[in-house]
Amino acid sequence: MARMIPEHPTEDTESRAEIRLFEHLRDETDDDLIVFHHVAWLIPGASGRPEQGEADFVLAHPKHGLLVLEAKGGTISYDAVQGQWWTRGRSGDARIRDPFHQARKNSHSLRRLLERGHRVSDNRFFASYAVAWPNTRVRTARLKPDAPREVIVDGDDLRQLEARLRQVFNYWAEREKGPGLATGDLEHIERTLANSFEVSAPLSLEMAEEARELLQLTKQQYYILDMLDRHPRAAIAGCAGSGKTFLAAEKARRLAQQGFRVLVLCFNRLLAEHLRRGLADADGVDAKSYDVFAARSSSRPGSICRQRKKLRASTGVGSARSLPKMSKASQVVGTGPSSSTRHRTSTRTGGCRFRFSSKTRMRHPYTSSSMTTNGSFR
User: Fold this and answer.
1) What is the pLDDT of residues 204-257, one digit of tens each?
2) How far apart are CA 240 and CA 342, in angstroms?
3) How, if at all, do strands 127-133 and 152-154 pair?
4) Which helix (H) or strand (E) segment is 238 a member of?
5) DSSP letter at 266?
6) Which residues 6+ apart lie within 8 Å of 59 measured at CB?
7) Three-state DSSP class for residue 279
8) Residue 259 contacts by C-beta under 8 Å, 6 or more apart in sequence?
9) What is the DSSP letter of 7?
């Protein structure tokens, strides 16, 4: 019993004659025979263009060598006047390519393929060829000069297939005698024609692809960004993962491109660091967490916190209305959990403010619009 690769006919094998031949090759041939079913390859051609090759069956035997077997089903005929081959089956007549030309061409291509990978110049990978017509009875009929009976396997030959294949091998051996196929040669053929492999999917690539997909702004997000161009202050809310952070980053980029200095504030330091790396290529954009920004601002001479202390010490009143406003050339984009105190401060201290919050719903400060958790306006 031959070793079949694959063990069963492929799912796209529609020819009943080909399946029948597969079963006979599997059950009625030498144990040393290796049969490759439905193989295809691609090699550089003489002109530099890719050269395609394919074979219904490739037989490899340690003693007899290689054989390319082209299978055709139905009743086979050839019209010499038109130079056209035909097959007739249950669905009627159909044109087919010259099976002998196919087998001959692919046998030469297969040899070049194997010699390229093995770097040998002897005759060991010489590939003979034959044509199988499992539904026909050829007997001694005269065909074409390039289609001798010696290279045809018909329906009657399937009854003694091993003997018939030996005759085909011997026919070619008298013309092209090779050294046979050693164990290493057979392993090389199998690696070339039926190599099993696995291409892993690294987690880093998957995460990078997910990040790329998240960065692709949806139509609704573009609508929100366009809305922000028309309003100096806005509060946008949405559930976790709805794209608030990416929206804030894109808004910061747009403001930076307009010549503004932009500060992106967020709730935690890890997110601030992530935003800082993601916006590193945008000039004029900085990202900080609230606590870092507050600590640095309070220690800076002339800071709002120090002026608040002076104001309280002199008047006993700490109104945000009395504090100097931010420069109109500065923009603040905030993202993170909402705080009513912070929100009032950010909307009263001047400049442009855009707040992206995880609150279930927040209303736009100057319109009746609101954002729900699915990110849609009302």
Assistant:
1) 888 887 776 666 666 667 777 777 777 778 888 878 877 788 888 888 888 888
2) 20
3) parallel
4) none
5) E
6) 25, 33, 34, 35, 36, 66, 67, 68, 69, 165
7) coil
8) 284
9) S
CB atoms within 10 A of CB 223: 13
Residue carrying structure tokens 């892993």: 200
> If phi over 0 gives left and psi between -120 and 50 gives alpha, with beta otherwise, what is residue 119?
left
Tell me which DSSP letter residue 2 carries: P
CA dist 197 and 355 (Å) reads 51
Residue 234: in which H helix or E strand, if any?
strand 233-237
Distinct helix (H) and strand (E) counts, the chain: 11, 16
Q: Which sign does the torsion angle of CA 149, 152, 158, 162 carry?
A: positive
Q: What value does the mean pLDDT of the chain take?
A: 79
What confidence score (pLDDT) does residue 345 get? Answer: 27
Averaged pLDDT for residues 127-149:
91
Cβ–Cβ under 8 Å, residues 41 and 53: yes
Q: What are all long-range contacts of 150-158, with beta carbons under 8 Å and residues at least 24 apart?
A: 151/100, 153/69, 158/20, 158/21, 158/24, 158/28, 158/134
Distances (CA, A) of 232 to 110, 330, 350: 70, 12, 10
Other Cβ atoms closer than 10 A to 297: 13
Peptide bond into 44 cis (omega under 30): no
Query: What does the pLDDT read at residue 353?
Result: 61
Cα angle value 138/8/186 (rounded, 5°): 85
Question: Amino acid letter at 292?
Answer: V
Q: List, as one string, the DSSP characters of 281-335.
A: TSTTEEEEEHHHHHHHHHTSTT-HHHHHHHHHHHHS---GGGSPPPPTTEEEEEE
Please report which helix (H) or strand (E) contains residue 239, including its range.
none
Ordered alpha helix ranges (H), the chain: 16-27, 99-118, 161-173, 183-193, 203-215, 219-230, 244-257, 269-278, 290-298, 304-315, 340-348
pTM to 2 decimals?
0.58
Residue 367 main-chain phi, psi, to 5 deg: -135, 175
Confidence of residue 67 (pLDDT cuts 50, 70, 90): very high
Looking at 89-196, list the stretches that DSSP marks H as alpha helix, in order from N- to C-terminal side.
99-118, 161-173, 183-193
Q: How far apart are CA 33 and CA 1, in angstroms?
A: 8
